[in-house]
Amino acid sequence: MSKLVTLAEMHAKFMSDPAYVEAYAEADAEYSVIEVMISARAAAGLTQEALAERMGTTQSAIARLEGGRVSPSVETLRKYAKAVGKRLRVEMV
């Protein structure tokens, strides 16, 4: 019987591939942004529907945004930040 390989083991193996490392870093950065957005909305005590109303959009648009299915513009991120009582700061490192 073959040994099952865990996701962590596969990830460790793939981290030796520079192309994988680059793709992983890009995906990690995108998910970090989404995590910050959702946390900010939750801290503001807003549902997706309430946030959508503040932004002048629909709940389904917020769901797509928070689900990572769309790539938001800086203007959309600015509106999102304002709607949750924050301001947007973009940084390159």
Explain the layout of strands and helices.
Blueprint: H1 7-14, H2 18-43, H3 48-55, H4 59-66, H5 74-83
If you had to describe this structure to a student in words, what would you say it looks like?
With 93 residues, this protein is an all-alpha fold. The protein has five helices and no strands. Helix 3 (48-55) packs across helix 4. The radius of gyration is 17 Å and the shape is elongated. The N and C termini lie far apart (47 Å).
Average pLDDT metric: 92
Question: What sort of overall outline do the alpha carbons produce when their principal axes are compared?
Answer: elongated
Cα gyration radius (Å) = 17 Å
Could you state the order of secondary-structure elements as H and E?
Answer: HHHHH
Q: What is the terminal-to-terminal distance?
A: 47 Å
Number of helices: 5
User: What percentage of the residues does DSSP assign to strands (E)?
Assistant: under 5%
What's the helical proportion of residues?
55-70%
- The computed structural class is mainly alpha
Number of strands: 0
Please describe the biggest sheet, giving its number of strands, its sense, and whether it closes into a barrel.
none
- Uncertain stretches of 5 or more adjacent residues: none
